């Protein structure tokens, strides 16, 4: 029996099972089984080497990477060529783009790589079409743009979300606040710091038993579901921000456009007529959360043309030095920083100091 057939069988059993407190335990077990089978689909067992097919992934360049995901013929290639000036083949039939087409834009001093991925079809997570490779590249992106046709958006949106979720990509979510630590002995130690609506000690134990984990510390710090626990145990989930780009707005009325604007995480555009690109770029910048640091040579004015761009959360002076060169840290005596992250301008700081967007830094060597 193939993996897909087993997944389909378990999913139909889950659909037949009524959801209540008595069946929560059983449903948790089934969810864990599906997650394990899905992981086998993504990483096939054995077989080591072998031909990997055409290279699909593109070398990572620039400060951030944005992938365009969507069904065939929704305008991903048109959007890329109009944004980045890169020619990605455009035609009126489906599946025009067959491999990843990269492009680069400069925005607010940062180099952002855009990837036009081939169209995905329903069942991509199960390996249909080029779906598996497409979604594998999407996992490496800092931001995913789901490009939708404005005339048939909601059905497509749900399908694409379902495909990405099945591949371990969580869109616009924070990692669940669950502490999980394996140990050698002592059984399952389960604590929760707040009331739980779905998980209890028995359900947690049965899900972990499915993974053959019998000794672990589990701490639930928020109201979590069985899916959250499975995500933490699997440990291979990526949490990516996502913007829904509704293309072809030149084909709808103003009233419909007003309704679309109220949907969260949505930007309506027309890739062909280049409408609303500035709003899209601004929204992309907000979601990427990049931090620009300007450099200042001694005795000269700061260089505001080419900032060093760091990802949010890794903005210490040490991160800044490592981004430029790994030997710079050994020679650093201290740094002078101007900007919003310090009380005095300039202020002498050490390697642990956290910088914010548009700070100016001068390094003083030993």
Describe the structure.
Keywords: Cytoplasm, GTP-binding, Hydrolase, Magnesium, Metal-binding, Nucleotide-binding, Nucleus. With 366 residues, the chain is an alpha/beta fold. It is 33% helix and 24% strand. The chain has a six-stranded mixed sheet with strand order 2-3-1-4-10-11, sandwiched between helices. A five-stranded mixed sheet has the order 13-12-16-14-15. α8 links the parallel β10 and β11. α1 (3-16) runs antiparallel to α2, α2 packs parallel to α6 (201-210) and α2 packs parallel to α7. The model is unreliable at 47-54 (pLDDT under 50).
Brief account:
The chain is of the alpha/beta class and 366 residues long. It has helices spanning 3-16, 21-42, 76-84, 131-139, 153-166, 201-210, 226-234, 254-261, 277-288, 317-324, 328-331, and strands spanning 64-69, 101-107, 110-116, 143-149, 169-171, 178-182, 188-192, 216-220, 238-240, 242-247, 266-268, 290-295, 303-311, 332-338, 347-349, 359-365.
Task: Tell me the strand percentage band.
Answer: 15-25%
Low-confidence stretches: 47-54
Biggest sheet record:
6 strands, mixed
How would you describe the shape? globular
- The average pLDDT score comes to 78
- Our count of helices gives 11
Distance N terminus to C terminus? Answer: 66 Å
Spell the H/E element sequence: HHEHEEHEHEEEHEHEEHEHEEHHEEE
Radius of gyration equals 24 Å
Cross-sheet strand order for the largest sheet = 2-3-1-4-10-11
Instruction: Determine the structural class based on helices, strands and strand pairing.
Output: alpha/beta
- Percent helix, as a range, is 25-40%
Number of strands: 16
